[in-house]
Structure formats: structure tokens, C-alpha cells
Amino acid sequence: MKILDLEPGDARLTADLLPVLRELRPHLTEDLFREVYERGYAQGLRFTAAYDDGGACVGAAGWRIVDNTSQIRKLYVDDLVTAGHARSTGAGRRLLGHLEQRAREAGCRAFALDSGTHRTRAHRFYLRERLDIVAFHFSKRLVPEAD
After folding, report:
1. For the chain, what is the domain count?
2. pTM of the model as a whole
3. Contacts of 131 (CB under 8 A, 6+ apart)
4. Which CATH number does the domain housing residue 89 bear?
5. pLDDT tens for residues 8-24?
6. In the structure, what pLDDT confidence band is assigned to residue 88 with cuts at 50, 70 and 90?
7. Do the beta carbons of residue 60 and residue 49 sit within 8 Å?
8. Which of 36, 66, 126, 143 gives a 20 to 30 Å CA spacing to 101?
């Protein structure tokens, strides 16, 4: 398995990573994804792709390093998804391990992600990977949902 960071403008973002990411974020169009990454990149957003031995993208992660008062420095995972056909192959574990190592190298004190309450299979995976449930995440929608 090969794990690569993809910079804005890299054709693999839309050709390889976006189809996998859309399994988690189906609302993302190619244009919206480009726009979000261009704006988010300045805020620390990065995308990492996992490729199987045949060269197919089987995992995608959006992440950033954040400094704040509660955890001082953490690597926060915005998105983590394994392609449906590649689940239970170790791709998610390898991607998560890669990001955790990157967090350690960056001097992070914490590694964090949020997961929707309905994603029980993902929760089992995170708990198996020794992540703990440490907080509730509260949110309020400020714009109406798109049709």
C-alpha cells in the first residue's frame, strides 16, 4: 500500500481521491471540492490518499494540525473513509496509523476526529484502533439544507 499527500491542483484529487471521499461526503461536486480545498489549504487542510498494490485509491483522509487552548496541538481528521469494496482490508488502519505518526512527528499532543452518531461500524473501528470517546460535539446549521 502506498500513502500519498495530494496538493491542490494535483489531478489525482478529483480522479482518485474524490470518488472515495464521496462515499462519505456525497454532496461534494468536483467544483465544490476544489473550492473547499483551495480555501481550506490556507487553513491547514490537507488530503492524503491510500493506494492499493494495483494503483487504485482505496482510502481518503482530510486532516489538519490545529493549535488551541484545550489540547494545545492536535491533528484533527476532518474526513476518513475507505472505499466500500476495500473495507476490512487494512486500508483504514494503515491510513489512520500514517496520520497518527504524522501527528507525533509534528509534536501533537492529541489525535482527534468526529464521527456521525449513525456510523456505528466506523465507531467499532475507531474503538478497535484505541481511540476513545471523550466529548460530545454540538452543532447548529446556519443555512438551509440544499435540495
Report:
1. 1
2. 0.90
3. 111, 113
4. 3.40.630.30
5. 999 999 999 999 999 99
6. confident
7. yes
8. 36
